Every structure is written in structure tokens, then in C-alpha cells.
Amino acid sequence: MVNLAVFKRKHKSHHSDVEVTFASHSKGSRDNLPTGNSKSPVVSTTCCCCGAALKHPQIEHKLKCMRCHCTLELTSNVEVRTSHISVCRFQQFEDVVVGCKMELEQKGKTLGSDFAKCHLHEIFRPLEIFLERLFSSVSSLNHFCTASNSELGQYDYKNMSSFYATILSLPTKKPFYKLLICSNERLKKPRANFYNDSSVSNFDQLLWVLMILENPLLRQSLKYNENCKPLAPHIRAIQYEVLKRSIGYLASVNEATGKDVIKYLQGLSSRRFDVLVDLLNLYITFHFSRILRKRAKMEACFGSPDLDEFCSDSKLNPRKLDNDFEILPRMVGKFLTSNGRPDLDLPVNFKFNVTEYGNDWHIRTAARLQYFHFVASQRKHKCATSRFYNMLSDYLDYKKDYEQWKIKLKGNAPESLKSFVETLDGLTFSPGKNPETQFTMCQFPFLMTMGVKISIMEYEIRKAMEHNAEQAFLKALDKKKVVDVYLRICIRRDHVAEDSLRCIEAHRSDLGKSLRVEFINEPGIDAGGLRKEWFSLLTKEIFNPDNGLFIVIDESRFSWFNMAYDGLGGSPQNSSKLYYLFGIVLGLAIYNGTILDVCFPRALYKKLCGEPLGSGDYLELYPETGRNIMKMVEYKEKDFEDIFCLNFEVNYPDAWGHKIHRRELCSDGAKRQVTRDNCSEYARLWMDFHLNKAIGNSFEVFMRGFQRVVRGDAFRLFNSKEVELLLCGSRDKDIDVSTLKSVSKYGNGFTSQSTVVKWFWEIFDELNTEEKRKLLEFVTGSDRIPATGISTIPFKVSRLGDDCDRLPIAHTCFNELCIYEYGDGAKLKKKLMVAIYESEGYGFR
């Protein structure tokens, strides 16, 4: 007879106490107790659900994590017996359902109107028994959700979708409730070890988790669906338990399994992928809502007025509702309105503190699993980057979050996924896995909106500028001379590039200061408008074809570095200086929030962010040549060499077409013929040459100038798509006049109801796309929509005076349009058209 002794001890982690239950199977031996005198060595195991680090004696067979209440069976110490496991197949499930429906039809004919609900339960009892047998083991579940006639590891989405659709369509919900109960019990006691070897993938052992996560009603545990009948709170509660454990299992996998999870996600259809991304975002919002509710309850108890308006809503009043699954789904619904902005009366200065979410394993696991989705999306372009944004990130205390993240970057970071990330196409960030260290949202920047990331960057820039201004002031006191606290650029309009380079060279140490621009012999105070015009004129000068720094690729109309200025081609004396200047200009544009009118392919922004380039980037820049190369690689006929007659070398003209340059793609490339066997290598070298090697020196100089300005950690939060949006704004969509109107302000006697104001918005709305952009450029200095959207433009319309023949004017520093109170709408439109097409320069009136 075996004595089963159960002991409990608290394992104190860095931020929280994790209680572990030990089950000792030895026959009354005191040596096996988890005490200080134990002879058994203590080892550490990671919980497969919440990721908690659990310490236990090596001889133990089972552990129970008291954070998530999952029981782990350490199969590495126990012989696994599978002979008794019954394998269930989808066909068996269909047979059981058909048998139950036939019995239902017979009973209906026999009993007629006397047919009671209890008969439904009896009729479908065989289905409940089948579900119990199906969920009796992980092995049974994995076989059930594996595609027929295939090896274990190929998830059968079609049958699993049919499985849930069939159960939900039954006339009784008892089988569905049994399914939830069985799912939760299996997740609580998986009786499987996923951490035997971190180098071995266990993805084929996780198919059952994917199957459970396929449940279409899991979403309803997080948010009320007005179109569906609300579920009972206890049903919502168990669905939430199932969801949180499923997310935890998939997020806590080892590195090898994580790669296979990403491969699986890459193969999903866009619709299924979007559903999973939205579900995880909803789950994160749910837990931020839980933090909000907890704080509201505490402040209600202490009589704090900060959340009085929030508490006044009877549907959300924490004093009246105690069940999380009554109040939280309503709160999530308030947060996820159609316009993406919370519909809650939160205090203006409300912020989520990093101490509130930094130790929440629910948010951590969801963020990490969302990271797998983000990597899959980056590789296969599954969805837009903005789909990963969580709108509640706008309410983070981003300063503390960012400072906490910076501490981790300096060497106190948790165990990272560096090696893992390096295999994922070299992403620029690696979220920590160690749950015992407080995590920050900056570890998962893809979850943060562009607005909060820009706020973080502005915070970093402001700190740097304040520091530089302080140092300038101290130097002025020390040297007893005036030291400017600004970076001042004084230029002549006809010598923009030359004067800009001279000023930057003279103020190398001042690039981190706030920028001020002055046009010589032109009156004007730079409050933003002169700076915008300087950027515009300078980029036009740098892209002037006479300089030859950049060429426009005819195939795509994108600008790219002139390959003839690199390597054998040589360069003009000032070309390196101009590349360096352009790098500084791009950095200053980012740090000063200015949108540039440039047209580069995504490859440039990837290189800025340190992201690797692929064949898709070459195809974007050289679409026609790229398609021809792909056709060559796909050509498998025996006359390959006779048809193509290629060697491993490349020929290209200079910027003016006067000279042809020849370069070898590899050692002795001119003597090496391209064949069917090595054509893939030739294609790879060809693309790498045009994207990297041929422009290596020029890009290095450009990058040196860029990094001379952009030196902070905040830039690492942005990916290449976001950097492009940050630098260039958006021209993809028509200008939303109604949104711009809703955020506009008025001055000098104008209101939203003024007749001239109404005429102006009617005229603005009637303009074509080009005219709208010209008007936007006239008022703001740029025809691009900012990265944060048109609603963030501080647009203002002011009154200049009574009706006259003068033209409207604009203060681009303040995005302000000043118009006279013209007598009719036709005159207003005529004056606007003349103003927007004939304006240039700045000055005093």
C-alpha cells in the first residue's frame, strides 16, 4: 500500500508568491519531503499555463500551480502508458450525432406534444459520453483534430469547425455545457509535459489546445454581443477559464514549438487570422478593464471623486455589481466602440500604472501569443500593423513604462528570446519570457498605438532637448559667453543645401536641440512653418537629378540610391556630405514631427529599423525585373544555359547613362555560368547586390547622419511600416473632411454656425482629391495625413475682417486658415483656389 502525502509550500518569486502543491508517492519516507533537510535535489519547472517558475524536489511526479491551478505531470520522471488510450475520430462523432437525431425523431413521433425537455437530455446523453471519452486524454484529442489520412501535426480546421457548428445547432445546450466542462478539466490537468527539451518542438502535442480555442463562443465571455442572447454568468465564467488557459498554453511554449506555432499561423486564411488577433486584443482589453474596475471599487470605498462619473453609470457601478462576468463584458463593449475610442467618462489624467499590469500573467501571456501572430503577419502580410493596436494603450502611464523598459535594456532584462528572435527574420525587439520579472508594454510595441509611441518618442526628445539646453546654459556661464539653446539654421533660399550643410557642420553638437529655421533677408519667426518649408526645399534640392544622389526607378517610380556613386563608380566631391546631410534631415524630421515629401520603397525603412530584406522588397523596387528573375528560376528545361547565357555578374549605368559599370556577384563571377542548379543562388546574389552591396558605402554615410540625430531607445519601438508613416504621412486615402470639421476650432468671431464657415466646409467637401490636398498643404504646410490620423491635426479657421477683395492667408505654424467674411460662397471658393495654387514663401503682413 502506498501512502500519498500532500505538502504545500510557498515559493516566493520576485514579485509574487506562487504556492506549489507537492504530491509525494514514496512509501512513508521522510527523506522525500520538500524541506531544508531533503536529500532530493530541488529543480525548477515552468508552468505550462501561466509560465510561473515552480521549484520542486526532483523526485516529484506532479505539481499544482496555485497561481493558475493547473496540475502538471512531470512525464520525464514517469513512464508514459498509452496502450489503454482510446482513439476517437471525427467520423465516430458524426455517427453518434446522427444516432441521437434519429432517436429524437422517433421519440417526437411517439410522444408528440408530451415530449419534454428531460427527454432531450436523455436522447443526447450518448453524445455527452462520447465527449467525456474524447477528453479523457490529450492523445485522444490530438488524434481527433488531426486531418484524416495524414500524420499527427496537421490540424483539421474544416472538421473542427463542423464539430462546433454541429454541437451549437443541437436543440439542447447540455452537450455544449459538457464540452466546456471537459475542456476546462483537461486544461487544468493536461497530464502532459511540454518542456522535456527546449530544442524539440511539441507542436503536434498542442493540436488539442488549438481545437479548444476554435470554440466560436469564447468571445462572448469577454464582450456582450447585442445580436445574440446573453449567456448566463456561470457559462461566461467557464468559457473565460477555457480561454485563459488555452492562451496560456500556447504562449508558454518553448522556442522550437514557438516557431511551429508561427508557421501554423502563417498558413491560416486572412479571416481566421484576423479573428484570432481580434480575440487576443479583446482579451487584453478585458483584463485592463478588470484593472479599471478594481481601482474604481477601491476609490468608491475611500470616497475618491476621480471615478465618480464612471461609477454613476448604473450598468457599470462597482457598488451594485459584484460578478466580473456581469460588469466586465459591458465595460469592454464601452471600450470597443465603432470609432475605436472608449465610450467611458474616464478622468482626463487617468493612467494605467505599470505596477498594475506588469505582474498580470493574463496580459503577459496574451501579449506573448499576440507576438507570434505579429511575426506571422510580418512574414506573410496577413493583416495591417494597426490591427494589433490596443486602444487602451493610450491610457498607459507611458513614461514609467518606458523608463522601466530602459532599465531592462541596460542589463537587468529578464531571460529574453534573443536566439529565438534571430531565427524570426531578425526582428528588432525580443519580449521577455521570465514571468518573475515585471514586464512592460514597451516589450510588445506592436500592441501600442502610434499615438502613444509618438508620445514616448516626444518624451525622450524633450528630455534630451532640456538636457542639451541646460548644458548650453551652463557652458554659457562657464565661458561667459552666449550659447544658443536652439539649433539655428540660417539659409538663403537659392542655396538651401549648401547653407544647410554649413550650419549643420558648424553645430554638430547641437543636433539634439530644438530646431529653428531662418530665411536670410526674409522676415519671419519660426513657430513651425519655416521649419516645414526648409524641409520641403531641402528634400527637393537633394533629389534634384543634377546631383545624381538618387535615381527614380522606372519600373516602380520609387527613389533609390545611385549605385554609380558606390564602389568602382566613384562619386563627386560633395556626394558623401550630401548623403550625410540627408540622413540628418530624416532624423531631424522625425525628431521635429515634420512630414517629408519623399517616395522610397519599404526597403529603406527596413534598413533603418534593422529588419532583413527579402525577395518581396526587390519586387517592390524592381517589379518587372523581379518577375523575369522568378521566371528564370522556375525554368527547368535542359536548354537553360543556351536560353539565358548569363554569368554571375551585373551591369548597370550611372545616373546620367553615360557609362556602364560591371561588377561580379561572387568571386570569379565573370567566369562562372548560371545554370539550372545555381540559378537560385544567382537570383539571391542579384537581389542582394541591388538592395545592399551596390549602395553599401552611400547607405553607410546616410545611416551615420541619421544615427547622429536618432540615438534614443524610443525609435526601437517603431517597425518599418510605422517609420514610413511617421516620415511620410499617408496619401492612400481621401481626406475625411467630416472628421477634420469635428475637431476644428474657430477664432476672431467665427463659430461653427457662422455662414462663411459653413460655406468653407461645403466647398472643402466638394473639392476633388488633388484640390483637397492642396488646401490642406496651404494651411498646414503638408498634403499628407499624419501617422496618428487626420483627427490629430489642430485645424483652426479664423476671421480676418469684413468682405473685401483680398485673398485668405494661412499660418502654417499653427495650422490656421484666416478668411474674410466674403459676401457669397462663390467668391470664397474663387479666392481659396487662387490662394492655394499661387502661394509660396512666408512673411509678415
UniProtKB/TrEMBL annotation:
GO terms for molecular function: ubiquitin protein ligase activity. Keywords: Transferase, Ubl conjugation pathway. It comes from the Eukaryota. It catalyses: S-ubiquitinyl-[E2 ubiquitin-conjugating enzyme]-L-cysteine + [acceptor protein]-L-lysine = [E2 ubiquitin-conjugating enzyme]-L-cysteine + N(6)-ubiquitinyl-[acceptor protein]-L-lysine. CDD domains: HECTc. One of its GO terms (biological process) is protein polyubiquitination. Residues 507-845 form the HECT domain. SMART domains: HECTc (SM00119). Its EC number is 2.3.2.26. Coiled coil: none annotated. The active site is at residue 813. It is an enzyme of class 2 (transferase). This is HECT-type E3 ubiquitin transferase. It comes from Lachancea meyersii CBS 8951. The lineage of its organism: Eukaryota, Fungi, Dikarya, Ascomycota, Saccharomycotina.
